[in-house]
Amino acid sequence: MTGKTETVRQAGTFALVGLAATGVHYLVALTLSLIMPVTWANPFGFLVAFGVSYIGHGRLTFRLAEGEHQHRKRLPRFALTATTGFLIGQGLLMALRALTPLPDWLALGIALGVVPVFTFVTSRIWVFALPSRDAND
Which of 19, 25, 90, 94 fits a disulfide with 45 by CB distance 3.0 to 4.6 angstroms? Predict the structure, then answer.
């Protein structure tokens, strides 16, 4: 695949894996919000979705071969990327809850919807990048 075609494929797959992980995040957080404030439930949703996202992006989005996983290198990078994205989303959620009359389901959906572009770009150029991919793009 050419660099541009591969980027389009990665973006599409990233969206599908991201939707699955976001769905897990949303459902866990929304379910837990029945017994605790949504701003406390959100981190639990994030933690469950983290595993779905890391494994899905490594295997499906960026198609790492078995020897390319390098979890010692990639997992901390992905954790930093995902945590930064989470903090952006959590900050937005807290602001929306404090400053607007939006219901929890909508505030949470907005907060989770703003992070994917940051996560894709950071994952592609830093977390899951391979030297050969960098040279071809």
Answer: 25
